[in-house]
Amino acid sequence: EDGTGLGLAVVSSIVTSIGGALFVISTPGDGTQFDVLWPLTMARKPERPDPLTHAPSADLSGRRVILVDDDAAVAEIMAEEIERRGAEVAVCTDARDALDAVSEDPDFWDVIITDFDMPVMSGAELARKINVLSPGKAMILCTALADWRGRNETAAELFSSVLQKPLKDGALAIAVSECIDG
């Protein structure tokens, strides 16, 4: 199965965010060489205001979110962003676990966040099944697939918001906040 390339995008983002660099040399038939250059000291990012601190809906305290992504590392990074805003996040790497959690108590969860392309059950299939259990449940799609609509044309109507991976700082927390408020 082909990957989406998101793993390398995450690595590149992390390395460059601390002042490092990533060089890739790929030669057909020979393979690929990755050189990661780490700074001797951590580069200090210039202080910049957090775009969410001024938003009245930025506080996600007491909100319960299920985050579904078959890549555990990506899921943890995404969960950290909304946990910093006070949300309680249940991370699932298997869509069936998320479906089980919602079926146990549909009203317990405020928002479901899911990837699109996952083994066993796609994000669209998960969204459809959750919609049967809890019609109108706020659901956010986070995907690296540019052509996800072409893979499932009717899925768009199930999602309150669609975000393209890799996510920009604060984008997920803003989307969760808007789904809850809106």
Describe the structure.
The chain is α/β, with parallel strands linked by helices and 182 residues long. It is 33% helix and 21% strand. The chain is built from six helices and seven strands. The chain has helices at residues 6-17, 72-83, 95-104, 123-133, 148-151, 171-181, and strands at residues 21-27, 31-37, 64-68, 88-92, 111-114, 138-143, 161-164. The strands form two sheets. A five-stranded parallel β-sheet has the order 4-3-5-6-7, with helices on both faces. Strand 5 (111-114), helix 4 and strand 6 form a beta-alpha-beta unit. Helix 3 (95-104) packs parallel to helix 4. The longest helix is centred in the first third of the chain and has 12 residues, at 6-17. The chain is globular, with a radius of gyration of 18 Å. The termini are far apart. 27% of the residues are buried.
List keywords for this structure.
single chain, 182 residues, alpha/beta, 5-stranded parallel β-sheet, two-stranded antiparallel sheet, 6 helices, globular
What is shown here, in short?
The protein has helices at 6-17, 72-83, 95-104, 123-133, 148-151, 171-181, and strands at residues 21-27, 31-37, 64-68, 88-92, 111-114, 138-143, 161-164. It has 182 residues and is an alpha/beta fold. Helix 3 (95-104) packs parallel to helix 4.
